Amino acid sequence: MPDTNLHPAVDGRTAAAPFAALEGTHWIESLRDGTRVLIRPLAPEDREREADFIERLSPDARRWRFLGSFRRASPALIDQLMDVDYRRQMAFVALAHVDGQLREVGASRYSEAGSDRRCECAVAVADEWQHRGLGVLLMRHLITIARKNGYRQMFSVDAAENEAMHALGEYLGFQRRIDPDDAAQVIHTLDL
Q: Residue 12's pLDDT is what?
C-alpha cells in the first residue's frame, strides 16, 4: 500500500501547525508484522473516528483503558478525549486502512498532572491490532513529546491484573508499584 493512501488531507485547521518544531507532523510506521500505520497528533476532525474506536474496543479493552465498564462513550467522555492543546494535553492516533476506510486503530495520550512537571498517560490499541508493537510505537511518540514539552515524569494508573500494560510498561522502562490508595491498581512511573 503506498504511503500516500494513509495521509489524510491536511489544511491550516489541523493539528499539524503546533508540531512544526518536531521532526515531522506525522509518521508512517511499520509494525512487527510489516503492516504500516500512520501516527499523527489527534485533530478536531478525528472526533467521529475517536468515538468509533472506543465503541469497537472489546469490553475488556475498554475496562483496561478507562478503569470501568460502559457500552458507549458519552459525549462528555469524547469531549474530554478531544480536548488537547498539544502541550499540557496531548494525544496521538494511529490510523490504518481497514475495509477501504481510514480507521483509528490505536491512541496514546497524556494530561498534565499538577504543577510538578508530571503527566498521566494512557494507551489503547484496537483488539485486532494488539501484540504487533503498535502500543510501543504510540507510547514512544508520547514519551518523546512529553520530554520536549518539559515533563520530568510520566505515570499511568492501571488495573493490577492488566498483564498487557505491565509488559508494555516494563519494556518501555516504567517502574511499577501498588497504588497506596487502591490495592486493585498499580502505578507505572517513568522518569523522563
A: 33
